[in-house]
Amino acid sequence: MPKAKIMVVEDDLDEAKLIKMVLEGEGYEAVCMFNGREALEKLGAEKPSLIVLDVMMPEMDGFSFCAKVKASPEHKDIPVILLTGVAKHIHDSRFPLNGVIRADADEYLEKPVQPEDLLKTIERLLQ
Amino acid sequence: MTAKSSPRPLNCWEYLECAHGPDSPDPCPATSDEHSNGINRGINGGRSCWGVVGVLSGAEILAPCALKESCPTCGFLHLVKSEEEASFQLLKLARGVDNAEELQQTITKVESFMAIHERLRSHFDLDQTISEITEEARKVTGAQRASVLFIKGKPAALHGRFGLRGKKREVEIALDETTAAGSAAINNHIVNLRDIYDQDDVGGASPFSREYDSQFECRTQSFLAAPICDPADRVIGVITLANAKKCFFSSDDQWFVEKYAVEVYLAVEKQKFIQQSISTLRLATIDETVAGLSHCIKNIAQALRTGSHIIKRALRSNNIQDIKAAWDILDRHIERLADLSMVVLDYDPIVREQTGEPSLNHLAEHVANLFKEEARARSIELTLEKGEDVDPAWLDMMDIYRCVVNLVSNALEACPLSDGSVHLSTSRSGENELCISVSDNGHGIGDLTNVTTPELFQSSKLRQGAGLGLPTIAAIVAKHNGRMEVDSSLGRGTTFRVYFSENTSRP
Fold this sequence. Notes:
The complex is a heterodimer of chains A (127) and B (507).
Chain A: E1 5-9, H1 13-25, E2 29-33, H2 36-46, E3 50-54, H3 62-71, E4 80-84, H4 87-93, E5 96-97, E6 101-102, E7 107-110, H5 115-126
Parallel strand pairs in A: 1-2, 1-3, 3-4, 4-7
Antiparallel strand pairs in A: 5-6
Chain B: H1 12-15, H2 29-32, H3 64-68, H4 75-84, H5 100-120, H6 126-141, E1 145-152, E2 157-164, E3 167-174, H7 180-187, E4 191-192, H8 193-199, H9 210-216, E5 222-229, E6 235-243, H10 251-317, H11 320-346, H12 349-352, H13 360-377, E7 380-385, H14 397-414, E8 420-430, E9 433-440, H15 453-456, H16 460-466, H17 470-479, E10 483-489, E11 493-501
Parallel strand pairs in B: 7-8
Antiparallel strand pairs in B: 1-2, 1-6, 2-3, 4-5, 5-6, 8-9, 9-11, 10-11
Helix pairs in contact in B: 5-6, 5-10, 6-10, 10-11, 11-14, 13-14, 14-17
């Protein structure tokens, strides 16, 4: 019985596969989605306990996806970890992205993140 | 209706709104030169002023434009040329030249001068430009030697290269009146040694004769030095001519050398402009480039960290399957990193913006310059040998550039810690085939000799020994249906030779 189901939203196949391997190695069930739109479509069916989310993706980026998840009454409680290259900046200012989108993730980790840090963050958010 | 059929085309004094027009108190010789009347439909010399202003015939009065402008760059000349089309006349048989042969020589010189001006417009390498100017100046004036010296250093002195006994030598000349070049620079005027000797006419003997030299107690020399000035009339250097023939430089030679001095100044300015443009271009794109690079590098680093984590964990549990899966991904990202570093090196506006006929030698020289500092810092002797019959080279220069950068980069990496050497050369290996060779005296890559590319680069073992970037080279060689030869022996070094067929569809 896996510890929890985690959705990995990442357009880079290699990175998605590696994160999936890390998670599965720790007993989690991991499902990979390759852009925000696909992830949003599958969210209801997959019902993940947590989402690990990349920012720069085709079709729908991580910020937009995160905003939609948090605006949805059905999914707003799913913790979201945003993997981003600008995490510090977001922490500092919580700036409105593109003037419209606000990043409302539960946690921000700056790439390249240490897998151990990612695992610790997941554990904490799932408690 | 074309401009040529207009009722009265403009004369120079009208076009330039010159204060020395025909009704002025001090009219320019062009306004009254009846011999030129009608040339290019002008009044007197009004539409052939470049040949009238007096400088070619040795007259003393110069129009202001002749003092300040280089005629070939003057808009008026180009206007007349375009208006007259096929009827355009460069010079008139006249003015101080009554000998057909001499006239023809003068015309040839002027045309040569104008041709070089046009040619230099497409150059962007200062050394090459200076070298071409000095060679033209030498030929046109019949000098034995021509040199361009620039004022630089502390204390300021004239620096340049003299051709002595077939070899170019670096020279430094003091900025004082002890030499003609120094005198021309500090006084900002042309120095023709004829003037010095003429003032000291000794007992009727002719300069250059044994009697004259003996009475004058030195050997008569023929030397001409003209200052190179910026628009504010500040001297930035000197162009010099030395004559082995027993005659002085003429007034015409003086005129030419002054014009060549202007060309040198324009070349220097052009070089500055190019450098500034490159800097601006780099600065303008740097934000975008850095952001893109940062994203790319972070993704690669993320994969490397995660992959490393998985491999460590899999090693503890002896999970070979996970090790293999993670290692395959890591391997791909190491290559991505290598490719990325080459993409950064590829960013070179000079190569991208090169116009005119493609030059493999110029490209090789550029790459050699690119790595010059790195080689010097690591005490590696980086030499370049340019093939004589290589250019124009009808190749995809951006790809070839990447290829040569990779080859030289690898060769430098392979060099020993001391007494390293890398030799880059270009040659024509067939009627439509060019060869680039890069040799190093590094550790070598085993007993692989004369191996063709596709098989060669599938070996990660070789890659480890020969440095990164070889897959890129292999891909470029394959893309251009080229071939590669590798000669290598352990401890003695490696030679890569890549052969490219020229494009058959040339402009």
